[in-house]
Each structure stands twice: as structure tokens, then as C-alpha cells.
Task: structure prediction
Amino acid sequence: MSRFPTKRGLGLLPLICFAVVFFAIPCRAAFPAGAKETGASRKLEIFSWWTAGGEAEGLAAMFDIYRVKYPTVFIINATVAGGAGSNAKAVLATRMRGGNPPDSFQVHAGHELIDTWVVAGKMEPITFVFKDNGWLADFPKDLIEIISYKGEIYSVPVNIHRSNVLWYNKKIFAANGLTPPRNLDELLWVADTLARKGITPLALGDSGIWASVHLLESVLLGTLGPNGYKGLWTGATKWDDPEVRTALTRFTTLLRYVNTDHAALSWDAAVQYVIDGKCAMTIMGDWAEGYFKQKGCTPNKEFGWAPSPGTQGSFIMLSDSFGLPRGAPDREEAVQWLTLAASREGQDAFNPKKGSIPSRTDGDRSLYDEYQKSAMDSFKTDTIVPSVTHGAAASEGWLALIQGIMSTLVADLNVDKAVDGLVQAARKYVK
Ligand code: GAL
Result:
């Protein structure tokens, strides 16, 4: 299996980055042309990577509420496309380094927020948003803990996403007498059965290598179990443990069953393959649910779901949050935005479209669909483990090393080499 498109793409990367940074940023920072004609006298710039189906609509739903509350503020929707922030994070870093921060930006709760931005002194504490509104008790304690540093809270978590979900095309499964695989051996068996019938079993869109890391985190959890998986991030589980090797071998075996054009596809294009019946299933976070719905699919009708194989009883969590960069040009509007993102009203407008569940514990359950209700229940009862792909388990430096190793593994399928790389990467980051 080769990743030629990625290698080719690498050559273009500096050019693309230059174009994005050079052309996009100066336009975004200024008061936008035409904004005054709308009657606006103030502005608010929100930076995110939410451009795909479901996520874009969720963001728009929060903007709609903001506009009604603050009609004189012009919202600049500063998005940089690319799942998991694969392009946005670099643009953000350039802006922050250049003293040109947006008013608020999307950042994953946990290591991504704290290690990248808070420890570096780039963020303002926003504990007051929670305290002034009496909302501290409305968020899970563990979540507050991972967005806090030295006694202060540094972001507003707008949701909880689940990473370890298998999504499948119900028609294909029914026509072939299949049920969702419960463990990784069953997954390989189901994949083999489908492949023999000429159906591509597993959709993957890893034009951003994060999607392969995303698949790997499910396979690691499905092989090592929650304690073994958690131990990877604390040093309690060694990266040359035989079970890690087994997980990596299973991952490379799975690659035999994915669409051949995976390296040219984005995550949402891969989900579209499942909708179109070009592939039978995919493993993706539940933003895929937002995408399915936005494309007119109904949970449990056109698509079904199950915990990714072998991960029943565990919930790989991640949370999208918004923070307040020091020097935000429109600080007052940013605080209004953060207050909306922390409110029940804001979360209950955003999450039903996004596929995620509210991070607040008092969300209105009746607004959520069957899948989301099942995620709410699992979040209450399952063992919660952090996602590495989406910023919760490890710092961005460590994740970047893992991504590099996975790019190579997807191309050369050399498990021993990958294990060596992963051991060395962990050595740098586990104290
Ligand atoms: C994740 C993010 C989700 C969704 C996804 C695909 O990192 O947490 O909200 O946007 O990327 O872009």
C-alpha cells in the first residue's frame, strides 16, 4: 500500500501554507469590507476548522443565537478547512506568534489547550465565565480538571465527542446477513466476508494522516483494554508491549480492507462512501453522525453504529473548547461568545447538529437523537479514556511524532520500525 498522494502533497505544502498565511490573514484581521453596511459597529472573529457537513451547521446555529443577542456585532467566521485541525493549527500558530490572535479559537480540551497555549502564557484565565453565571457545578469535574491550570479555567468546552465509534451502512449489512463486529477478530472476519463479495469493507480518508491515527487509537483500545490504553500516556504501558505490536499488526491488516484512494480522501468523503454504499463501514468520531444527518440520513435507518470493535464499555472522549487569547482584539465580544458556548442554550443549539453531546450535564435530552442519547448514556457509565488524535491524551509535540510514524507505517507496513519509533517518541514525553 502506498501513500503517493501524500508524498506528492508534501511538495505543495510550503506553497499552500504560504498562500493561506499570506492571503487569508490580513483580510481576516481587519474590520471586514461591507460589514458596516450591515449596520454592524463591532466585530467578533471566531477561528475553527468546522467546514464539513454537520460541524458547519452546528457552528452556524451558535452564530444565529449570538446575532440575535448582539445585532450590532459582525461575526467573522474564520475557518480553515481540514479535519482535526490538520491545516488550521498551523495557521493559528502563525497568527499567535505574530501577535495577531483571533478573538476566540477552537482548541481541544486537555494537553492541546494546556501544553500548547496556557503554559506558554498565551491565554487569559476565564474562570469568571463559569463563576459569574453560577455554572461551575454544571460541568463534569474531570472535564473542568483538564481545562484548568494552577487553579484557573482556560477554556469553555462546548461538547463531548466520542472517538471510538463504528458506523455502518445498514442496507449492506442486512443484505449480507451481518451484524456489527464486537471485537477485532470479528471485524477482520466481517471485512474478509465483504471483500470476497466485492464490497470494500472499511472507508478511510487519511489525506490528513490524523484519520489513520484515529483508527489506530480505536485498535489500541480494542486490543489493550482501557487500563492498558491509558497507561500508554502515563508510561504504565510500554510501547513495545506485545499487545501494542498486536494492535499495530491488526492495523496494518485492516489496511488491506480500506478503499484504495484513502490517501486522497478527507474524513467526510470517507463517510460519504458509506452513505453511497461504496464501503460498508468506517471508524470515525461522532462528528460523522452530524455529517450523516446533514446528508439526510436517519440514525438506525440508513446507518447504524456500535462501539468500535473490542471497545464496549469504554468511551474515548475528546472535547472541543474555545478560549480567550491574550490580546484578543474584541475581548468583550469574545467573552459574550464564550458565555454563549458555555450556556445550555448555546450547547443545545450546537450539539444536536454536530453529533456530539453537551458538555453541560443539564442539556435537554429531548433535543437529541437516538445515537446521541446512547452516547449520553455511555458517557455516564463507561470507562472514560482520552483521545490522542484530538488533543486530550498527549501534547501536540508527541502527537506530531506519532503522526509521522503512522505516515511511514501506512506506506511501508513495517510494524517493528513503528514500534521502535513509538518507544522513542514516548521516551521524550513521558516523565
Ligand atoms: C476533531 C474535532 C471535531 C471535528 C473533527 C473533524 O478534531 O474535535 O469537532 O471537527 O475534528 O474535523
